[in-house]
Write a structure and sequence with these properties.
- The chain has 223 residues and is an alpha/beta fold.
- It has seven helices and seven strands.
- A seven-stranded mixed sheet has the order 3-2-1-4-5-7-6, with helices on both faces.
- Helix 6 (137-158) runs parallel beside helix 7 (175-185).
- The protein is globular.
């Protein structure tokens, strides 16, 4: 879900049309410029591996799911990768992607995702979820980090030990406490600001990997 547009919508439209990432997405057949944010994050470490199981939270319009299914494809031993996507908004079909039009924050939406996983351990949980913006910073930040906590709870429960969690957040109130929460659950936590993120945007992507052993005494490592 996109950030709020600037007050002058005409300027926003003009800037959007001239955006090189918008043009590139159109040329490459992707549904949104946001795909290049995920592509850059994945480029260095290759989180989207052939045969991997991926959950895409807040997937519409589908750019991240497009890239994910393209990357996970089929593993070297013939193990087929899987992408399970969910969003409140409708999303056009993407070959190979299982899409659930539902609210992830509702029990029914959560259970629908779990059912589609068919007890398979998850390799990557990625969340580009954002709340409907009210324009009131404190309220919007609280709603955003509430979504982030729900996404993290899901990741902690369903990721395999070496799995990865990627989540969009905004700099500001609640950011540091959320990072601290991630560090309580994952061995490695790093922040990324992809080139495709607009300069004026406060969005940041946090990448967490390596679940801490339950009850273990593992020293925290932060990239």
């Amino acid at each position: 879900m996109a950030n709020a547009r600037p007050k002058n919508s005409r300027d926003w439209v003009q800037r959007h049309l001239n955006d090189p990432f918008v043009k590139k997405a159109q040329e490459d057949g992707y549904r949104s410029r946001a795909v290049y944010k995920l592509e850059e994050i994945d480029a260095k470490h290759g989180y989207l591996k052939p045969g991997a199981v991926v959950v895409d939270l807040g997937s519409a319009p589908g750019g991240w799911s497009q890239l994910a299914i393209k990357k996970v494809g089929r593993g070297s031993k013939g193990n087929k990768g899987k992408v399970v996507a969910i969003d409140l908004l409708p999303m056009g079909p993407i070959p190979g992607v299982i899409f659930i039009e539902a609210d992830f924050t509702d029990e029914a939406g959560l259970q629908a995702v779990i059912a589609e996983l068919e007890n398979q351990p998850v390799d990557l949980v990625m969340s580009d979820m954002s709340p409907n913006m009210t324009g009131i910073p404190v309220t919007d930040q609280a709603r955003l980090f509430n979504l982030g906590e729900l996404a993290m709870d899901f990741a902690v429960k369903f990721l395999q030990p070496n799995g990865v969690f990627i989540v969009k957040v905004f700099q500001g109130i609640g950011f540091e406490p959320y990072v601290k929460l991630l560090r309580q659950n994952f061995l490695h936590v790093s922040a990324k600001k992809p080139d495709a993120s607009r300069d004026e945007s406060r969005e940041t992507y946090l990448v967490a990997k390596g679940l801490k052993a339950v009850g273990g005494d593992i020293e925290k490592a932060v990239e």
